[in-house]
Design a protein that fits this description.
The chain is an alpha/beta fold. 43% of the residues lie in helices and 14% in strands. It has one domain: UDP-N-acetylmuramoyl-L-alanine:D-glutamate ligase, CATH 3.40.1190.20. The structure holds ligand NPW, adenosine-5'-diphosphate (ADP) and magnesium ion (MG).
Length: 277
């Protein structure tokens, strides 16, 4: 297993070309957030916007519209009960699942609409729905972001067995697709088609609801704009950034809030874009 290091940030986070506009930095569609779990998509969207996605749209329960806009006027909103097919096809990156609750219908419609060239990040309730309903993943550039219980539900690999990376590789093979898997825990592991990486940073100050929703949003924001890097490098850089910011905040804070990580992203990214290792 390779140790992930700060080096990945210098590779992926690059200065923006002057000849550009918001479309250059990608369109992200976030699908999730039942009325109960609206906070999850607010945190997805804050992370994606603060990470630099050009345009972010959130398809969610209408009950979440006002709260979302009061936190993030930069994001657009649509009702997730409408037909999302055209919207899905007009975005570069789709993030589905944070706070999606039991909306299997929305998950299935999304899987039917997505194109193979699109980046599809599957998080939270979407992973649990996948496991409970034995649905196949669609053809897309897939990133799964399970915590250990979500991974156990999908693959049947117990959390104790997950300590042996070979089991996780086998579990991924059984999905019939080869998604990038971000297996979240203390010292998260990332399974790419070539290698397995371990995140050596991060800590218990990150154990707060919404911390994974924020990570999924950062991955989406990075994937939308850093299209010159490989998707695996983009995911590695997002995972590293999420915990590096948390570590920095934890020098003076007992706990770190997910939204505080998002707020630090523009400053953090500036540093890596303009300095060399
Ligand atoms: N503000 C909002 O709107 C928020 C909305 N959210 C949304 O809620 C949805 C449900 O997601 P969820 O993760 O909260 O619940 P679930 O999938 O049942 O997993 C928890 C179970 O797994 C177990 N467990 C074992 N190992 C673990 C590990 N390493 N990491 C984590 N858990 C681990 C754990 O064990 P225990 O804690 O009991 O010891 C427990 O039994 C999802 O869509 C999410 O996006 C949340 O983000 C919160 C903020
Ligand atoms: N003790 C810990 N040490 C390091 N990272 C942690 C710790 N506890 C939680 N995290 C991180 O916080 C995030 C939690 O994700 P998740 O459980 O999906 O949260 P949520 O669904 O509430 O947003 C993951 O990135 C995980 O690695
Ligand atoms: Mg989660």
């Amino acid at each position: 297993m390779k140790q992930l290091s700060e080096k990945i940030l210098y590779q992926v986070i690059t200065p923006r070309p002057a000849q550009s506009h918001k479309g250059t930095f990608g369109r992200v569609l976030i699908i999730g957030g039942t009325a109960e779990f609206g906070g999850a998509v607010i945190m997805n969207a804050m992370a994606a916007v603060y990470a630099g996605a050009g345009l972010v749209t959130v398809a969610t329960d209408t009950a979440n519209f006002t709260a979302l806009h009061s936190h993030l006027p930069e994001a657009m909103v649509v009702d997730f009960n409408q037909d999302l097919t055209t919207l899905i096809q007009n975005n570069d990156v789709i993030l589905i699942g944070s706070g999606l609750g039991d909306r299997l219908d929305i998950l299935q419609a999304t899987f039917r609409a997505v194109f193979p060239k699109q980046i599809l990040i599957v998080d939270g309730s979407a992973l649990t729905l996948l496991a409970e309903n034995h649905i196949n993943l669609p053809h897309a550039r897939l990133v799964l972001t399970p915590h250990q219980m979500e991974w156990q539900r999908i693959t049947g690999i117990s959390i104790a067995q997950q300590a042996f990376e070979a089991f996780n590789v086998l579990g991924r093979d059984r999905l019939k697709q080869m998604p990038i898997v971000v297996l979240k825990q203390h010292h998260t592991q990332i399974y790419t088609s070539k290698d397995i990486y371990e995140l050596p940073i991060g800590g218990p100050y990150q154990a707060t609801g919404g911390m994974g929703d924020t990570l999924a949003g950062i991955i989406a924001g990075f994937a939308a704009q850093f299209f010159l890097a490989s998707l695996s490098d983009v995911v590695l850089a997002a995972v590293y950034s999420h915990s590096a910011i948390a570590d920095e905040l934890a020098k003076t804070q007992y706990i770190v809030l997910p939204t505080q990580i998002s707020q630090q992203l523009p400053k953090f990214m500036k540093h890596y874009a303009v300095t060399k290792p």
